[in-house]
Amino acid sequence: MFIAVISDIHGNRQALEAVLGDIAGYMPDHIVNLGDVVGYGGDPEWCLQTIKYTASISILGNHDVNAADMEPIHPSVNPVAALALHWTSQHLSDDSKSFLRGLQYQAQEPCGRIGYVHSSVPHPESFHYLLRRERIEEHLQEQTQKITFVGHSHLPDCWSTDGTKMFCLFGYRSGFVSFDLNGPEQDKSMVNTGSVGQPRDHDPKASYALLEIEGSKLKIMNKKVEYDIETAQARIREAGLPEVLATRIEFGR
Asked: Computed from CA positions of residues 120, 150, 107, 188, in that sequence, does the dihedral angle turn out positive or negative?
């Protein structure tokens, strides 16, 4: 059984097309979208309509919430992101906004052992970043599933706890990590998929997570996919969005 988990597409059609092409080679049982389909990129409507019909599980990201006019843009949002969100909201169809408004902040697989959230389990609607060690520890303590998949930071990562200590599994970034879904209850893990449309780990390739499940054995791979960055940049510029949004995807930052 294969499950593909993608996050933070951010209106980047070219990256999403490349990732879906790579995923198709594994013939996954289903695709999970962790949110922030829109924002920053030049093709929000295409990305949303594509996700609507390709992902069997979708949850809300913070950009989705604002773009669908579910909440006003907070004053603390940086001006570039706010401008992109205003533009995105104006270029989404009523159907796409309705789709976003029907989504939840969290989801899980029927087995109850694998969970999905855009940001973090404690207060998922607040969209806290899992960057500081104390935030990650709080997340792992609060999650009820054996393993959760998150996005939001755009940084592929994997952290685990055995109930007494917490440690980073660096192997995820360079290959794969393995878990036993029937292991001790205190053993919990959190995996960040990285970003499809706007990576920030200084690797411009689109990032997603591929799960291979055999019985209780779970193997998770961090997949990196090359895509047509120049066309993605052209779409941002054609939309009249800030130049920094076109520049940054070339360098993965």
From this structure: negative
What are residue 224's DSSP bridge partners? 207
What is the set of domains in the chain, with CATH numbers?
2-251 (3.60.21.10)
| Burial of 87 from C-beta contacts in 10 A (0-12 / 13-18 / 19+) | buried
Which pTM value belongs to this model?
0.96
**Splitting the chain (253 residues) into consecutive groups of 10 residues, what average pLDDT does each group show?**
97 98 97 98 98 98 96 89 96 98 96 95 94 93 96 96 90 89 94 97 97 95 97 98 97 95
Q: Among 218, 197, 217, which Cα is nearest to 207's?
A: 197
Q: Single out the residue of 134, 144, 191, 140 nearest to residue 162, CA to CA.
A: 140
